[in-house]
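Below is a filled-in request sheet from our internal design queue. Each sheet records the structural input a requester submitted and the sequence that came back. We keep these sheets so that new team members can see what a complete request looks like end to end.

REQUESTER: design group, bay 2
PRIORITY: normal
MODE: inverse folding
CHAIN LENGTH: 239
BACKBONE (tokenized):
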């Protein structure tokens, strides 16, 4: 099934990178503003990587009451939040440092073991306002968040009843030397009403097409976000 014709996603094509950045940031601003108006506060989950960084910078310039916004992560490498290779570092430097007052909940807590960090992340998910939006990316292998195909923990993580799980991506080349991860699970995607997948380049669109045609979530874990109950995954794409 082609991404162009699939009824499982909404594909938004942008003319160029600037339009893509502006369009995604504008949609995020609209969702957050509506949530603040309706509930008094808003919570969102962000991903790392270089692709979304310009979007976060543009969003930070929006005239929102940032003190009413809580920010979490879709996933994280088992690294200190102060490590420049962590998702927390990327989110802090591209967004939080410019959105004064926004509250941040990192997934990794310095000094705590991995299992305890996962436990804490699930406690936060249970006892805080549900996220109104999540920003996701996708690798050329079809992974999203830290749901990597062929990782030893993937099947267990896909079946998890918790919002977050630990995952060992040893042997997955795109894990880039950081095999231990904390990641949203398919269960974690379910309550999030606005799910955004940010893609750039024809190759990413081809991978998305292959995933939709395959229907195999173990081979293309991005399908966990596509198949989650609720509203369609919104895919923002530019060449």
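RETURNED SEQUENCE:
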């Amino acid at each position: 099934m082609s991404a162009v014709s699939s009824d499982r996603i909404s594909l938004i094509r942008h003319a160029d990178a600037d339009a893509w950045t502006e369009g995604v940031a504008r949609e995020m601003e609209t969702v957050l503003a509506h949530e603040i108006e309706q509930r008094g506060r808003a919570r969102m989950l962000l991903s790392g990587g270089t692709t979304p960084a310009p979007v976060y910078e543009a969003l930070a310039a929006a005239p929102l009451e940032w003190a009413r916004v809580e920010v979490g992560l879709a996933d994280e490498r088992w690294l200190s939040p102060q490590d420049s290779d962590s998702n927390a570092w990327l989110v802090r430097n591209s967004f939080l440092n410019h959105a004064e007052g926004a509250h941040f909940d990192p997934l990794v807590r310095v000094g705590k073991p991995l299992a305890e960090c996962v436990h804490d992340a699930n406690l936060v998910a249970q006892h805080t306002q549900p996220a109104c939006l999540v920003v996701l990316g996708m690798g050329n292998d079809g992974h999203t968040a830290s749901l990597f195909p062929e990782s030893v923990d993937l099947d267990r993580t896909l079946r998890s009843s918790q919002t977050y799980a630990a995952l060992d991506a040893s042997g997955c080349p795109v894990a880039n030397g950081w095999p231990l991860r904390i990641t949203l699970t398919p269960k974690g995607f379910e309550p999030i009403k606005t799910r955004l997948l940010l893609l750039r380049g024809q190759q990413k669109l081809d991978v998305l097409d292959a995933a939709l045609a395959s229907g195999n979530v173990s081979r293309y874990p991005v399908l966990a976000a596509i198949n989650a109950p609720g509203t369609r995954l919104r895919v923002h794409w530019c060449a």
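SHEET NOTES:
- The chain has a mean pLDDT of 96.
- The helical segments are 17-39, 53-60, 87-96, 114-127, 154-159, 186-189, 202-214, 223-227.
FILED BY: M.R.
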